[in-house]
Amino acid sequence: TITVTSGTNVHLPCHIPSSSVVSSNALWFKDTGDSKRTQLNLEDDTTDEKKVDLLYPMDHDQSIIIRQAFTDDSGVYSCESAEGERLHTINLIVEDSAPPLLSCKALNDILMRKQRERMSFSLQMASQIYYNSQMNLSDAFTNLSIQYYEAEPMKLLKTSEENTKLINDWVANKTKNKIPKLLEQVSPSTQLMLLNAVSFSGEWKFQFNDKQKKGNFIKLNGDRVKVPLLYHSKYLATMMYVVEMKAQVAKFSLTGDNSLYILLPHSNTEADLQQVEKRMTDGNVRQMIEHLRAAAPQNIEVTLPQIKLDVEPNMITLIEKLGLLILSQLYSHHLCF
After folding, report:
1. Cα–Cα distance, 178 to 171 (Å, whole number)
2. Is 242 exposed, middle or buried (CB count within 10 Å of its CB: 0-12, 13-18, 19+)?
3. Structurally, how many domains does the chain consist of?
4. Residues 43-78: pLDDT tens digits?
5. Are 199 and 175 in contact (CB under 8 A)?
6. Percent of the chain's residues with pLDDT above 90
């Protein structure tokens, strides 16, 4: 059972077994009483923001979202394969009454969910747990996975090759093919995997010049290299010196309610860059955003290098920095992140 207040977006989970091939999307139904039901329209609605939307077409994850749910949306929903196999049944309750007093954690969860909904057309986030088919997961664990990751744990397949394809297909789908291949191989001894995927798609609100241009980019060691550039002689952006950061900061508007902030240290030395990084605390970043929000945009000459980040962080080092030494030891022997 899922209980929400009126006006919120509701996520109803459904998954096709990982051992099955996805040849068509699942079918969703809502009970209408007297042993009757109606099929939800997930295909023909062409409006920009559908009332009911299938989040990941042609994927093992066949979850839907009901936007701006009201009391009329309450009822029993069921998800079935195209062959008629019942995959999931959910009782949805939409309440008009005011919600009870919330804990800080519950309030943060709601704010985070609202932020994700607001940015849903530019920012996609997904998580999925995969586990060895020999393991028996408790109902409590499964329910927590649905609660925190909005996804039911899925069993790994029989062979390493099948699992490698399963994982890479999932990552490609959730990142809109920005990461077509994450893993070379999934170890046969893998017991549990937690995957997190984040995909952001943003476009400049004001376009740069179409004509390609190249120029010098100074690296930290002082070397100059020729790189492709984005250039505009009178780009509309907000720029100011932010005392908290001790850096010049420029704010570039993107489509939607998104912005890109670029921080320039006093010089191109590593020491000045590290000083700016140290000052990027939560409080200072909030102050920076407020300062630039209050300032008026102006026409400025902008030259930006076109870059591509390709980073593979060392998870053991990151886990140890968080103080999770026991998990780090487990990670190096048994876990796969």
Report:
1. 9
2. buried
3. 2
4. 755 555 678 988 888 888 899 999 888 889 999 999
5. yes
6. 37
Asked if residue 69 is part of any domain, the answer here is yes
In a domain, 180, yes or no: no
| The last residue of a domain, from among 110, 129, 146 | 110
Residue where one domain finishes, among candidates 110, 130, 159: 110
Domain limits for position 265: 213-305
- Integer CA distances (angstroms), 106 to 10, 100, 110, 126, in order: 16, 11, 6, 20
Give the CATH number, domain containing residue 17: 2.60.40.10
Number of Cα atoms under 13 Å in the Cβ half of residue 105: 1
pLDDT at 265: 92
Write out pLDDT tens, residues 188-240: 999 989 888 877 778 888 888 888 788 888 888 888 889 999 999 999 999 99
Residue 247 belongs to domain with CATH number:
2.30.39.10
Residue 103 has pLDDT above 80, yes or no: no
Residue 217 forms part of a structural domain: yes
The chain-wide mean pLDDT, for the chain, equals 83
- Residue 319: how many other CB atoms lie within 10 Å: 20
330: in domain: no
Quick: pLDDT tens for 274-286: 999 999 998 999 9
Query: How many CB atoms neighbour CB 131 within 10 A?
Result: 19
For the chain, where are the E strands, in sequence order?
2-5, 10-12, 27-33, 36-39, 52-54, 64-66, 75-80, 86-95, 123-131, 154-155, 192-200, 213-218, 224-242, 247-253, 259-264, 298-305
Contacts of 286 (CB under 8 A, 6+ apart): none
CA–CA distance from 247 to each of 72, 220, 265, 267 (Å)?
53, 17, 5, 10
243 Cβ contact partners less than 8 Å away, ≥ 6 residues apart:
none
Residue labelled with tokens 């140290």:
278
Residue 195 near residue 130, CB atoms below 8 Å: yes
Q: Exposure pattern of 163-176 as b/e (b: 16+ CB <10 Å)?
A: bbebbbebbbbbbe
Tell me the Ramachandran region of residue 246: left when phi exceeds 0, alpha when psi lies from -120 to 50, beta otherwise. Answer: left
